[in-house]
Amino acid sequence: MEKSVNQSKNGDKTFTLNDAWLAGILGSAMDAIITVDEQQRILLFNTAAEKMFRCEAVAVLGETLDRFIPSRHRESHLKHVRTFGETKVTQRQMGQLRPVSGLRANGEEFPIEASISQIEIEDRRLFTVIIRDITEKKRMESQFLRVQRMESIGTLAGGIAHDLNNVLSPILTATELLQMRTADESVLRLLNIIQSNALRGGEMIRQVLSFARGVEGDYVLLQPNHLVKEIIKILSETFPKNIEIGFSLAPGLWHVNGDTTQLHQVLMNLCVNARDSMPDGGKLRIETDNIVIDDHYVRMNVEAKPGNYVRLLVQDDGFGMAPEVLEKIFDPFFTTKKPGQGTGLGLSTVAGIMRSHGGFINVYSEQGKGSRFTIYLPANLIAEPEEQKVSRPDLPFGNGETILVVDDEESIREVAKETLVTFGYNVITANDGTEALDRFAAHRDEIRLVITDMMMPYMDGPTMIRALKKMDSEVRVIATSGLKTNSHQAEVSQLGVGRFLTKPYTAETLLRAIASMLAEE
After folding, report:
1. Which residue, 58, 157, 210, 461, has fewest beta-carbon neighbours within 10 Å?
2. pLDDT for 70
3. Contact, 75 vs 46, CB < 8 A?
4. At 219, is the secondary structure helix, strand, or coil?
5. Per-block average pLDDT, block size 10, for the chain (521 residues)?
6. Burial (CB count <10 Å: 0-12, 13-18, 19+), residue 333
């Protein structure tokens, strides 16, 4: 049985494939498959290509492939196709491709891998390209390389710190001997300066070693809530009065194995940094809770491992950090403070302490809106009552309800979609507010709930929600963001949003929020 797959709009011969089952394979393939003629006109554009490039096949058949290639790459692409047509030799092999970019219909560039093949049908040469979106792969590689870079920096810093200790030790010893042998006040003053700076250098070296190797400490079973209460008391007595300190301590918080002094240092460092980011005053908040990290969360954070954790959050509404600053904040000696106001070792020490405790730290910041540091410490459930030893509670399932997921991060969209489909929901995705409105208009009678990020290009979350409310005043919305501030909460409340989730969230958090929203109908 002959089956027509796609036909160009230029009146050419219909491009046919003779096996219906082959058409089914093309339609269900996970990679984009595009066939073009010698003039680069698109003859076949499968379902995966529609999703990848965010346009329908009917709109691109007969158009040239150039529209999906960034302008700076078009000439080299045509040269490659000509060479391949003549020699049938290509370097474009899946998984071995040099970095190449694709261009979505909305103008967004994204990394791809591609392979190409050539066939002749009815005296025509046709080229078929199989394309794989590697955005998620690149993101994970970037995170992995960052972890490797931090480990390399730590190894280097540790070696340098060891040598510096050998340099400082005789300086301090000789200084003390000279102080005992002279009564000259001017000489003593100079010796005191030498001693003070050598001691300061020694402290810096200890911080570097903390970052590089972690610090061996006296690990005991401790209750993090008690530690936080002590921190809050110190902050209340020492921080400026124009900084409002709030806290929320979870009842029944799990215990952790840790060094009290080191964890005290971690929290104090984060709180002092928060204070410094609010020179004119602001709000500092500390929270604790229990969290079960699942595979959903792990796929958003390469340093995380599944398991039971105690989560401690330190958040401020200060001036926040730019993305280029966020990339470097855990590097030793990196600081945005003025000379003499900071060594750049505080956060690197925090990172070292967290590694030595088997935990990790997550940071989110927006310029002008503040920062949120969240530390995760492995929980010790052996010390808890038997009824608290829950590795994963029963999670609510859906009944085929359709959910619209809107986020400009493809990895987050895909992970959310996979989770929701697994738990019985139908999912429609959109990569920004504009696309979400189109999706909602097309599926208005089906969509029961919208989950949207608040920070997106082209059209952000709040603007999109207002437009959705005009289309359907009863639409239910769950908002998400990497930062939860008072301004966010006020905006969410004004928009009539039912729930707010702070990224990254677990599958349990997402599923329970959805179930709760749907139950209110």
Report:
1. 58
2. 86
3. no
4. coil
5. 42 50 74 88 90 89 87 75 63 49 86 82 83 80 64 60 63 75 84 78 62 59 91 87 92 90 85 89 93 79 82 92 76 58 63 83 86 92 48 73 89 81 90 90 92 84 90 90 62 81 76 89 67
6. middle
Q: What is 1-15 written as a DSSP string?
A: --EEEE--SS----E
Tokens found for residue 311: 């989560």
Residue 64 is given by DSSP the state B
With left for phi above 0 and alpha for psi between -120 and 50, is residue 281 left, alpha or beta? left
Q: Which run of H or of E encompasses 314?
A: strand 307-316
Per-residue HEC secondary structure of 71-113 comes to HHHHHHHHHHHHHHHHHCCCCCCCCCCCCEEEECCCCCEEEEE
Q: Which residues contact 495 (CB under 8 A, 6 or more apart)?
A: 462, 465, 466, 469, 477, 479
Using DSSP, state whether 406 is helix, strand or coil. strand
> Hey, what are 203's tokens?
């402290």
pLDDT score recorded for residue 388? 39
Q: Which two tokens stand for residue 7?
A: 């036909």
Counting runs of H as helices and runs of E as strands, what totals does the chain give? 16, 19
Read off the tokens for 9.
């709009």
Give the CA distances from residue 509 to residues 35, 110, 286, 397, 403, in Å, rounded to whole numbers and listed in that order: 43, 30, 20, 13, 16
411: enclosing H helix or E strand: helix 410-422
Q: What is the mean pLDDT of the chain?
A: 78
Residue located via tokens 């002094």: 261
User: How many angstroms from the chain centroid is the CA of residue 141?
Assistant: 12
Q: Which of 455, 202, 126 is nearest to 320 (CA)?
A: 455
**3 state DSSP class of 122:** coil
Give the pLDDT of residue 18.
54
- Class of residue 107 by CB neighbours under 10 A (exposed 0-12, middle 13-18, buried 19+): exposed
pLDDT, position 205 = 64
Cα 406 to Cα 497: distance, rounded to the nearest angstrom? 14
What ranges make up the beta strands (E) of 367-459?
370-380, 402-406, 426-430, 447-453
Q: Give CA separation, 282 vs 106, 277, 278, 312, 315, in Å.
A: 39, 9, 6, 20, 11
Query: Is 423 within 8 Å of 511 (Cβ atoms)?
Result: yes
Token pair recorded at residue 424: 């019985």
**Helix, strand, coil share (%) of the chain residues, nearest 5:** 45, 25, 30
